[in-house]
Amino acid sequence: MRRALLLLLVLLAACGRKGPPLPPLREVPETTTDLVASQEENEVVLRWSYPALTRSGQPLRDLEAVEVWLTEVPPGQEKSLEGPQAVELKRQLILGRGKQVARLSGKALEAATRGSTLEYRESAVLPAGQAAPTLLYAVRSRRAKGGVSDFSNVVSFQVQSPPPPPSNLQAQPLAEGVALSWEAPAEASFRVERKEEKGSWQVLAENLAAPRYLDTTAQQGARYAYRVRTTVRQVTGPASPEVAVDYRDTFPPPVPSNLVCLPEPGRVVLRWDPGAEEGVRFKVFRRLGEGSWQHLSDDWASASYVDENPPTGELTYAVKAFDRQGNESAEATCTARGGS
């Protein structure tokens, strides 16, 4: 008992002693985990998130460069990259046989930045008359002070012949947008690209399963060009011939809805819903019995109208909407008895 008590006192005394100072924890960039590879025409394309944090979750403010590494697995050996050991095997291949094929820094890093994403492209070489090797890619980030991240997830890719472009691209302007349709082989997805009159090509939609798309973001009064690409097994082919659209506003606004005629002493009050389209004005008409239509207003701004001192008898009122381009809707009607 006495020996155990002495041992406890020694241990307690040791807890208060200072040991040798530990070296500061070296902050390195976070490890990239979302690297993906695809092929666009004759280029291999890598995309991953821009490294914004250190491994401890602090903001990364001194990113110096991002390195792209590559190794190849000869044709016929790609089966070895399957199964439960595939992730570790790919990592070991990058560590043991990988070579740095690009260093993105300065202007090159700026050019590779797409918002919160980085993009790297290189030529996709398809060997003539033989199978292509399997390409293994990884990236890692380097700080200005020398700290370097671990390698990212390793992606594998095999260069293929790009699929042909879609054919018979058609564009039909509609009130709700520009409707596109095209012809293409089955088991493919599609990318739609749009260019404004003085702009550059932008991806409008991708991974579409059906050969059709409605561009609801098109603005009436603008001119656009559209083209479509086919994607099969992560390989995107060349663009279809483009089709131009002069998206003029030739579409009438909606018919005024929920029109009601409310007879009051010495007048009839008309009310209706104004609708969502901006800049719409209204025309108001009245007819007594089966007589001819009388124009009460050809340019009315609000969604209500008061007909003072209407004639006595069965009255029919009509309201039409028209827009800035002069497109006019069909009429909405209601009835009331005047002179009450």
Automatic annotation (TrEMBL):
Superkingdom of origin: Bacteria
All copies of domain Fibronectin type-III, residue ranges: 165-253
Protein name: Fibronectin type-III domain-containing protein
